[in-house]
Write a structure and sequence with these properties.
Structural class: alpha+beta
Distance between the termini: 21 Å
Strand order of the largest sheet: 4-5-9-8-7-6-10-3-11-12
Largest sheet: 10 strands, mixed
Helix content: 40-55%
Shape: rod-shaped
Order of helices and strands: HHHEEEEHEEEEEHEEEEEHHHH
Number of strands: 14
Length: about 500
């Protein structure tokens, strides 16, 4: 076969081009530290690179979500822990008050301290916010848990579920001896106070509307019953506490205190049943009262504009963050699951009992003043006043028993509220631990994925330097060989 100079020239240029391509490839790898410069260089590496980069973006977003969730949950945990410690103090104070004799000043100081503690739990903790969003209000993060100001233009129709086992036997003083100019010692003796009990449970608000209240429950056979309670306002003269004495087949609702008082037959039926709820209305809310929409299914009607809003599924308002592939985490804790409304209600109950006791002691002081001013020779009047003093003393002793029972009930309520809060804290802590474990796993996965991405895309500089040097030597040798071949022509042989 005849080899021509043109053939040799073409072959030489082809080899030079091939060596130049290899030389340029290793040069670019060495300069960029990447195995490929465009997908067509190696489609397999390109596809893997896209997958690793997408995975890295997702992992870093999940880590960012975990950080946001961690910040939210840290902000949530602190007010719950503070409220927990305050409940311990409230239990301690009430226990001491129940065990020690207290005068009027001591009682005033105790109830004032309890009110401050209650306000701290609701106003400084339950109403906490983070970065402009309220922590314990579910989806309504822009709406505080408590009313900012007194609210009187909207009527809420509230449906509140009540635990049947929280129906208590409350004690009260029935009857009261009252001073009269013509009364005798026998008259005062006939007005002697009695110590009675009633079956009672309290809704979450006082000063409710004077409207029909319906109570729904299931009896022991599972049959549903609805009772319309008799509205029984507290009269100005509370000598006989008639609002605590319904008939056997009656239920009283006391709007001023939010108490539901059961007659004996109704109580027996309800106590053996389940699923009790009460439907009532409230229009006048004070500043720092809990907004019903954060705790109960309710309907709110603006009495000025007529606008109606319905609120439901309160306990299903979960704020979820995606913290991993196909993994969601609930970061919020609902106020209705953490802060029991009964804390403030039982403090009000203690205040009312103490206030009644203070009035009784003032009445006794007034009688003692009358005795001191009475003519010693007026034996009949003096005897009647002393009988009155004795009967008021008996009434005070009975009221002190009521107060002691109220303290005991308050301790139980605070302990139950603490249990509710502890359950919320435990649930919060378990979710927090899961989030931390997930975040740690993501950080490890980020490192592993970054290493795999680097191994797929990046070159080994030592290896590529050797290849680059080899390609350079080969390219230079090709140029030298070609220069010798192409430098010789047919004239050199003539």
């Amino acid at each position: 076969m005849r080899i021509t100079n043109n053939m040799m020239r073409n072959n030489s240029m082809l080899h030079i081009q091939r060596n130049k391509v290899a030389y340029n490839k290793y040069f670019e790898q060495y300069a960029t530290e990447k195995k490929i410069q465009k997908p067509s260089d190696d489609p397999t590496i390109a596809v893997r690179a896209l997958k690793y980069r997408t995975t890295m973006v997702e992992i870093r977003q999940y880590i960012s979500n975990c950080t946001d969730a961690e910040n939210w949950m840290d902000a949530t945990e602190e007010p719950m822990n503070k409220a927990n410690s305050i409940l311990d103090k409230m239990i301690e104070d009430v226990t001491n008050a129940a065990n020690d004799p207290n005068n009027a000043d001591d009682r005033a100081m105790i109830v004032q301290q309890l009110r401050e503690y209650s306000g701290f739990i609701y106003e400084q903790n339950a109403n906490s916010d983070y970065a402009g969003r309220y922590l314990f209000t579910g989806y309504r993060t822009d709406l505080p848990l408590l009313f900012d100001n007194a609210q009187t233009d909207t009527t809420y129709t509230i449906t509140e579920g009540l635990e049947i086992n929280k129906i208590e036997n409350t004690s009260f003083v029935y009857g009261q001896p009252e001073y009269g100019d013509t009364k005798t010692a026998d008259d005062y003796a006939n007005e002697a106070s009695e110590f009675l009990t009633a079956h009672r449970i309290m809704v979450s608000y006082n000063n409710c509307d004077n409207q029909d209240v319906t109570i729904t429950y299931k009896d022991v056979a599972g049959e549903s019953h609805t009772i319309t309670a008799v509205t029984k306002s507290i009269p100005e003269n509370t000598v006989y506490n008639e609002h605590y004495m319904p008939g056997d087949d009656e239920v009283y609702f006391v709007p001023e205190t939010g108490e539901i008082v059961f007659g004996q037959n109704i109580y027996d039926s309800v106590r053996a049943g389940s699923d009790m709820s009460v439907r009532y209305q409230k229009t006048n809310f004070e500043k720092s009262d809990i907004r019903p929409e954060h705790y109960f299914d309710c309907r709110a009607v603006n009495n000025v504009t007529g606008v109606t809003r319905n609120y439901a599924d309160v306990r299903g308002q979960k704020i979820n963050y995606q913290i991993n592939f196909s993994q969601m985490l609930t970061v919020n804790t609902l106020g209705c699951n953490a802060f029991d409304t009964s804390i403030g209600r039982v403090v009000d109950q203690i205040y009312n009992v103490i206030n009644d006791l203070d009035i009784m002691e003032m009445n006794r002081t007034a009688v003692q003043k009358r005795i001191a001013d009475c003519d010693p020779g007026d034996k009949e009047t003096l005897a009647s006043l002393k009988e009155l003093e004795e009967q008021i003393g008996t009434q005070i002793a009975l009221q002190n028993t009521v107060l002691t029972n109220t303290y005991s009930h308050a301790i139980t309520v605070f302990q139950d509220a603490k249990h509710t809060l502890n359950v919320a804290v435990a649930d919060h802590g378990s979710r927090y631990n899961r989030m931390e474990m997930t975040k740690n796993q993501l950080e490890i996965l980020e490192i592993d994925t970054d290493e795999a991405k680097s191994e797929n895309e990046n070159v080994d500089l030592e290896e590529v330097l050797v290849n680059y040097t080899e390609a350079d030597l080969l390219y230079q040798a090709t140029l030298q060989a070609t220069s010798k071949i192409l430098g010789t022509s047919l004239l050199d042989f003539i």
